[in-house]
Amino acid sequence: MGQCRSSGVQTASAAIFSGQCRLISLHGVHTGLDPNTAATVKVFDNASAASGTELARLVLGGPAQSAPVVMEYDMHGVLATNGLYLEITGATAAVSVEFN
User: Where are the domains of the chain?
Assistant: First the structure.
């Protein structure tokens, strides 16, 4: 796929990109003090809001650490037609979104 762009590390919900692009991967780490409280990370095909088609979801941490606290998710270049919006809810997390 060649080179891609990165959102840089995001610690809150944010508009990542406006326009058509390909979602390459997500990298996330749970940064909360309590690993038993999950951080949920979602990426939407939307340039400005957490709505529309949900392209990816990561759950980091959680009760008895049933989910990993560090995760990489390979999206294989899935097409987003409107843009990318990152939503982080629950515990705190640090996430980067790679796209081209």
Answer: 5-99
Distance from the first to the final alpha carbon of the chain: 9
- The CATH code belonging to domain 5-99 is 2.60.120
Over residues 65-82, the pLDDT tens digits come to 666 789 999 999 999 999
Nearest in space to 38 (alpha carbons), one of 68, 74, 72, 71? 68
Question: In angstroms, what CA-CA distances link 84 with 15, 20, 26, 33?
Answer: 6, 9, 12, 28
